[in-house]
Design a protein that fits this description.
Blueprint lengths: L2 E8 L6 H14 L4 E7 L11 H4 L3 E2 L5 E2 L1 H10 L8 E3 H13 L10 H20 L3 E6 L9 H14 L4 E8 L12 H12 L6 E6 L5 H11 L6 E5 L7 H7 L2 H8 L10 H12 L3 E8 L9 H14 L2 E8 H5 L5 H4 L5 E4 L8 H13 L4 E4 L1 H13 L6 E3 L8 E6 L14 E9 L4 H6 L3 E8 L1 E3 L4 H6 L2 E7 L5 E6 L5 E4 L14 H11 L3
Parallel strand pairs: 1-6, 1-7, 2-5, 2-6, 7-8, 8-9, 10-11, 10-12, 12-13, 13-21, 14-15
Antiparallel strand pairs: 3-4, 15-18, 16-17, 16-19, 19-20, 20-21
The structure holds glutamine.
């Protein structure tokens, strides 16, 4: 029998439900169970691809080209396993297929309703993932907060699944915030009590409560939550603030999360094997050697916009035994003169030019690139960052002052970056970029080839524009050489400046495949150069 564990959220969103879910799943994976995780997003968007990063943070891209919620990124990074489009279910997808089926007459004259038609569609999608992935346990994180109108059909589907799959095959974990008063430090449990009441009102009694709190829960707070939520005190687990998210599985383990859930699901408790994980967490926390990295982008006010990149740097840092210090540079502040490149940039040991869309902030990035290139500071340009590298080289080495991307200037004189041929004439915006994993052939002897150590690599993508191959010869003559081309559609995937220590651009997003246990080779190579140890 497949086991289903539903994770709901209370009080506030963004309290770390995704990391909690990934951590619990990791504990069971480390016991030898095969697991998968589904994220349910109750919004009407079909996927996260059309959402501004300021609204929901980064759009995470899966191998199969899904544009998903950033929690899928946490799941992959914790489980060290690829998930797919199907692991992110939204209200938009559910209604889309129910309505299409109705149009085809599949409901045979029935009145199509939320219960049972919408809830049946939700349940069948969850079960399909379980079957396809052939797992022992499926964790289903329900986005948003209990009490949200749009989350109701999903909670109702979860409630029905308990009836259909059986008590021992389903469990409910409720993650809720326990705030502390700044003046007294007292932990207040009332919001959790209310959110549990709200859950019970719709027929769900949680089995485990995870309290998100600043400090470990006091025994009084634990007892109170247990009493009012109708669970034993040992099933109230505190998920307190830790210095890095990779510690979360360890603090849940210490409190016996795996024992309680295994008992609840009638699963044998096996040995939790996490030696390598623990080792890396310690390295990350203990290393005293620091490295200042500039993060140059235009969504820097919401750090979640670049979460996979931040995590990729942490993964490589853990392996290299350094502590990264992120210096966030808002590229529009460079354009407005609020940040002076000459005064700020000389302290950086490395810089990342972050991905992005649109004109705003792009000139700030180009000015930054000029300084970084001329001062031989190790630099990694990602996607849009890579495209701007090519434009900067064209303008300032080749002297093509009219160099730009046709995304940024429709009357561009020298379209160094242009719309990809495959992107011409598209009418729909959602799900139509060049997406997902592509096979890339690297050029032997280049820095990128040395970083990966193999000739063929697969990396993930999300873009419409690319470096224009008509200008490749001139760019290469200027020293900015191609170091990798995609096999299927000949897109220029990597370029590097042959005169610099490390000045590399990638059209792909290698950060999407970086995991704590398996960091991205190109990020590690970049950091090695920033550390001067390569
Ligand atoms: N805006 C650029 C494009 O569409 C880059 C996208 C990105 O950085 N992800 O090609």
């Amino acid at each position: 029998m497949i086991k289903y564990v539903f994770i709901t959220g209370g009080v506030l969103s963004s309290v770390g439900k995704g990391v909690t879910t990934a951590s619990v799943a990791l504990l069971f994976q480390s016991m030898g169970y095969s697991v998968t995780i589904i994220k349910v997003d109750p919004y009407i968007n079909v996927d996260a691809g059309t959402m501004n990063p300021y609204a929901h943070g980064e759009v995470f891209v899966t191998e199969d080209g899904g544009e998903t919620d950033l929690d899928i990124g946490h799941y992959e990074r914790f489980l060290n396993k690829n998930l797919g489009k199907k692991n992110n279910i939204t209200t938009g997808q559910i209604y889309y297929s129910v309505i299409m089926r109705e149009r085809k007459g599949e409901f045979l004259g029935a009145t199509v309703q939320i219960i049972p038609h919408v809830t049946n569609e939700i349940k069948s999608r969850i079960k399909e993932v379980a079957k396809e992935d052939k797992v022992d346990i499926v964790f289903v994180e329900i986005g948003g907060t209990v009490g949200d109108i749009e989350g109701l059909p999903f909670l109702e589907a979860a409630r029905q699944m308990r009836l259909e799959e059986g008590f021992n095959n389903t469990a409910f974990i409720h993650v809720a915030l326990v705030p502390s008063l700044r003046t007294t430090g007292e932990q207040k449990t009332k919001p959790v009590q209310h959110s549990v009441q709200e859950l019970r009102r719709i027929g769900i009694q949680p089995d485990i409560i995870v309290a998100r709190c600043e400090k470990p829960l006091t025994s009084e707070a634990r007892a109170k939550i247990a009493l009012f939520s109708n669970v034993p005190p040992e099933a109230v687990i505190s998920n307190y603030d830790v210095s890095n998210i990779y510690e979360v599985p360890l603090i849940l383990y210490e409190q016996g999360m795996h024992l309680i859930l295994a008992e609840r699901l009638k699963l044998p408790v096996l040995n939790v094997k996490m030696d390598q994980w623990i080792n890396l967490v310690e390295r990350l926390n203990k290393s005293s050697k620091t490295l200042e990295i500039a993060m140059i982008g235009k969504y820097t006010k919401l750090r979640d916009s670049y979460i996979s990149i931040v995590e990729a740097i942490k993964h490589s840092s853990a392996h290299l035994g350094v502590k990264p210090i992120f210096r966030w540079i808002e590229s529009t502040d460079i354009e407005d003169g609020k940040i002076k490149i000459d005064e700020e940039f000389n302290k950086f040991r490395g810089a990342l030019i972050l991905p992005g869309f649109g004109k705003r902030g792009s000139e700030g990035k180009i000015s930054s690139l000029r300084y970084l290139r001329e001062h031989n500071i190790p630099t990694l340009g990602i996607c849009f960052g890579f495209q701007l590298m090519a434009i900067e080289v064209a303008r300032n080495i080749l002297g093509l002052s009219g160099a730009n991307s046709s995304e940024l200037d429709s009357n561009v004189q020298h379209p160094i970056v242009d719309l990809l041929p495959s992107q011409q004439g598209l009418s729909l915006v959602g799900g139509t970029m060049r997406l997902g994993s592509k096979l890339i052939k690297l050029v032997k002897g280049t820095m990128v080839y040395n970083a990966y150590g193999v000739e063929y690599v697969m990396e993930r993508h999300r873009h419409r524009y690319g470096v224009n191959s008509k200008y490749l010869e001139s760019l290469e003559a200027a020293g900015f050489i191609s170091s990798g081309i995609s096999v299927e559609d000949s897109v220029i995937e990597y370029m590097e400046l042959k005169y610099n220590k490390f000045y590399v651009g990638t059209q792909a997003h290698p950060e999407f495949k970086s995991r704590l246990l398996q960091p991205s080779p190109i990020y590690t190579y970049f950091l090695k150069h920033a550390l001067n140890t390569s």
